[in-house]
Amino acid sequence: MDSITDTQLKDVIRNGKGAGMPKYADFTDHQVDALVRYIRSLSQSP
Ligand code: HEM
Questions:
Q1: 6 falls in which pLDDT band (50, 70, 90)?
Q2: Which of 21, 30, 33, 37 to mutate to test the pocket of ligand 1 (most atoms within 8 A of CB)?
Q3: ∠ CA 13-31-17 to the nearest 5 degrees?
Q4: How far away, in angstroms, is 46 Cα from ligand 1 center?
């Protein structure tokens, strides 16, 4: 998770990736920012 930037995460969420990850083009900036924070929170060490 350290190797991917917030900008790259936002890009994957907005535009999708590969054959399996759908794009979420309708999400607002606020929603995408919240998702990035949530994804980061999942990989925090205790
Ligand atoms: C809001 C919901 C979702 C978020 C925030 C999300 C986020 C992500 C992120 C951050 C990645 C990692 C990309 C990378 O490693 O560069 C990813 C990959 C992936 N996601 Fe999602 N995802 C969501 C929903 C879904 C759904 C609904 C599916 C399938 C039905 C899905 C299927 C996949 C697949 C297959 C990949 C791997 C893509 C690849 O590397 O080829 N995702 N997703």
A1: very high
A2: 21
A3: 5
A4: 25
Centroid of ligand 1 to alpha carbon of 7 (angstroms): 15
**Ordered alpha helix ranges (H), the chain:** 6-15, 29-42
pLDDT tens-digit map of 20-34: 999 999 999 999 999
Q: Are 15 and 23 in contact (CB under 8 A)?
A: yes
Q: How far is CA 26 from CA 2, 4, 34, 35, 37, in A?
A: 27, 22, 14, 14, 18
> Has residue 46 got a pLDDT over 90?
no
